[in-house]
Write the structure tokens for this entry.
Amino acid sequence: MILSGRKFAKTVRRNLAEEISKTGGRPPGLAVVIVGDNPASQIYVSMKKKACEKAGLISRIVHLDEAVSENRLLREIESLNQDSSIDGILCQLPLPEHISDETVASSILPSKDVDGFHPVNVGKLWRGEEGLFPCTPVGIIALLKHSEIRIDGVNAVIVGRSNIVGKPMAALLLREHATVTIAHSHTPDLPGLCRQADILITALGKPHFINSEYVKPGSTLIDVGITRTSEGLRGDVDFEQVKDICGAITPVPGGVGPLTIAFLISNTMKAWNRNR
Ligand code: GUN
């Protein structure tokens, strides 16, 4: 089974757009802060803006110069924190070397933190409380449920321990009662560990690293890694090699990628519903 994140994301965005159009009053507002001219970041930000507008959200892009001071960026975020027309704020990563990701994440009001990177939201996630949680892992859980893939009681292995994907993914799978292992570059016998996974989630950024040696027959493979190569976009998983071994798999492109924006809109609406 091919798990089409693209198709599912479209349905999610259509449902969210319908909810916005039915609700009167002020539309949800998202502010996206981008620092510098990283080409990949610029593409992501313009995709976010387009998708927001199509769904009926107001989006505001705040573009700051690469050389902007951390203080100036924090003042910009503070003014968005105070702005009652803005429900969600995200600061596109990576940030320049002289600006601390952690300081920026902690400066966004937790109630507007649609990336779910603020320590308050991270704490709520691990404690099993309500909050705003990172868009990609939230989207992956929704895709698994939509595809009727069992999470409760299964073995889930995540390869990658980032704050954006690996760690929040583990917390969300744990909340759904999976037995969760986080593997990384220091993990011994990675293929053997991955072969025990009923659900294998990879966020490595190493094109076609995951081959048939890593895959349990009938398992579900969620490929979060996307690398631009000279032959086009490549996932972490060697799709051709594993497609007849696994039970379900997300393709690259068209798998996990489109979920992130759909669930960014969903998080912004969650914030809007609470903040109104
Ligand atoms: N850069 C790559 N992924 C992300 C993300 O999920 N959020 C933000 N803010 N920046 C990113």
The longest helix spans residues 257-275. The CA atoms of residues 32 and 61 lie 5 Å apart. The first strand starts at residue 29 and ends at 35. Residues 25-110 form a domain with the Rossmann fold fold (CATH 3.40.50.10860).
